[in-house]
Amino acid sequence: MSPHEAERMLAFDAEHIWHPYAPMPAAVPAQPVVSAQGVRLTLADGTELIDGMSSWWAAVHGYRHPDLDAAVTGQLGKMAHVMFGGLTHPPAVRLAERLVALTPEPLTKVFFADSGSVAVEVAIKMALQYWRSQGRPERHRLLTVRGGYHGDTFGDMAVCDPVNGMHHLFADVLARHVFAPPPPLGYAAEPDQAYLDELARLAAAHAHELAGIIVEPIVQGAGGMRFYAPEYLRALREIADEHGLLLVLDEIATGFGRTGELWGCDHAEVAPDIMCLGKALTGGYMTMAVTMCTDRVASGITSGEAGVLMHGPTYMANPLAAAVASASIDLLLSRDWRDEVDTIEALLTSGLDGAAELPGVADVRVLGAIGVIEAREPVDVPAVQEIAMENGVWLRPFGKLIYTMPPYVCTDDEIGHIATAMWEIAESLHAPA
């Protein structure tokens, strides 16, 4: 792309195209990506950047992987899409077979959604419709924890952190759910009995109106990149069982090995009643997500007044997305993904060692293929990204967080570059006045 073409493209983009959580017109120009290969993005001027974000945590195999390219082009030669109402097709069935085999044993039913946000909407609808079908429509609220993030649609926003989250502007028009304090920070921390008691107290006090519990297992993502101990997830499973609640686990960010286990819930050795998957599902190639549930949930919904689950996206089970999702799962399982993630964890841990002592840094934490530097004050995003790009790395910080969730196929040297960029950013931070 010539400089003139790039300039024209950026000018139109800034004036007419809305980007995520951005003003209109744009205050800061977007970076023009013209191609991607391996784990690197190529900008219009030829600059190459290591993608430390996996395209928002999805491109775990990197870009232009021949197996995934072949899956898409092979399916394109048969059909790009067909409605799923009254029809089915081999890519959807193959993908469902893989997911039923890979996920915790009680999860046997698969609902294909368009995106992670829609998958959570479907999960919420499942929980509420289940209890309505049981003749208990008053059980229409959910128990969750502060610090969570589950998507941008209205059902999802209602179970995101209502105070410090991204959706507080809509708090007065959202459904009212029950919020516990955020889980105490620290994957390896000793469980706080007072916190466990508070979870139990809240659940008991609201059990008559609760349909279920919804949380992100082990890692709270866009709500703060917080890691918590598996004991809290086990406690929520026990609380759900005690009161007959449905446990909904949002594995959209944590699934497919990101935390060092295949599923976040594997850290606690628990199984949910409903589980949401997305992001890495298709290896970052196409938008697709899944809501899975148990036989109990499915039969409970189907036996009710509607007799069906009241949801059905136009692009449900898109054949192209389903085909590349199966190929992505096969690719993940063909490699030693656990060793890849463990190596990233070790390299990020060593590469960020000591950064917590810098004056502008509040905390440094690493789990699986996730590395986080939490600043003491909100960061200047353009300034932070400039430092990262000077180091040949693409990062997208938010709030007080500089973090990375790189592709699993990064080399040791590439992870080293990411850690160096994060360290230099941490050095640039100032202590609060």
Folded structure, characterized:
- The protein has helices at 3-16, 54-57, 66-76, 90-102, 116-133, 154-157, 193-206, 230-243, 295-302, 319-334, 337-351, 381-390, 412-428; strands at residues 33-37, 40-43, 48-51, 107-113, 141-145, 178-180, 210-215, 219-220, 226-227, 246-250, 274-277, 289-294, 361-367, 370-375, 393-394, 401-404.
- By secondary structure, the protein is α/β, with parallel strands linked by helices.
- Strand 5 (141-145), helix 6 (154-157) and strand 6 form a beta-alpha-beta unit.
- 48% of the residues are buried.
Using brief descriptors, characterize the structure shown:
Adenosylmethionine-8-amino-7-oxononanoate aminotransferase, globular, 433 residues, 13 helices, 36% helix, four-stranded mixed sheet, seven-stranded mixed sheet, 16 strands, adenosylmethionine-8-amino-7-oxononanoate transaminase activity, alpha/beta
